[in-house]
Amino acid sequence: MRGLFSTIFLLLVALMIITTEAGKNKKEKGKGSKGASDCTDWRFGSCVPNNGDCGSGLREGTCNEQTKKLKCKVPCNWKKEFGADCKYKFEKWGECDTASGIKSRSGTLVKALYDAECQPVMMATKPCSTKNKAKSKGKKGKGKGN
Description:
alpha+beta; about 20% helix; heparin-binding; PTN_MK_heparin-bd_GF_CS; secreted
C-alpha cells in the first residue's frame, strides 16, 4: 500500500513541475508576441477621428524609433471643443442670459492625458432651455369619471 501512495505522490509532483514549466513558457511567448519594449518615454499625439471631426479614431505614439497606435474617441458633443484628453471639473450652469438666449459655466482643469496641452480654465455655453420646468407632475382630471 505504501508503494502505491509513493508512486501516486511522485506522479503528482512530476505533473506539477511539468505544468509549471509549461505555464512559464506560455507567459514568455505572450510577452514576445505583444511586442513589449524597454521604452518608457512614449509620446502620443492627439486622437484623430476615423470619419469627420468626432467619434472613434486612432492616436499615434512614438518612442525612440518605435511607433504604435492606440484606439481612442473624440466626443461628439460640446466636449469635442477641448477633446477627450483634457478632463475638467465644471460648475453648475449659470442663469440664462435673456438677451443672447445662452447660459454658461466654467471648468477647471483636473487632468491632462497623454501630455495634452490643455487650457487651465474652460468656458462652456449652451442654449437656454425652452421647456417650462415649473410644470406640475400630477395628472389631474385624467382619470375615469372626471
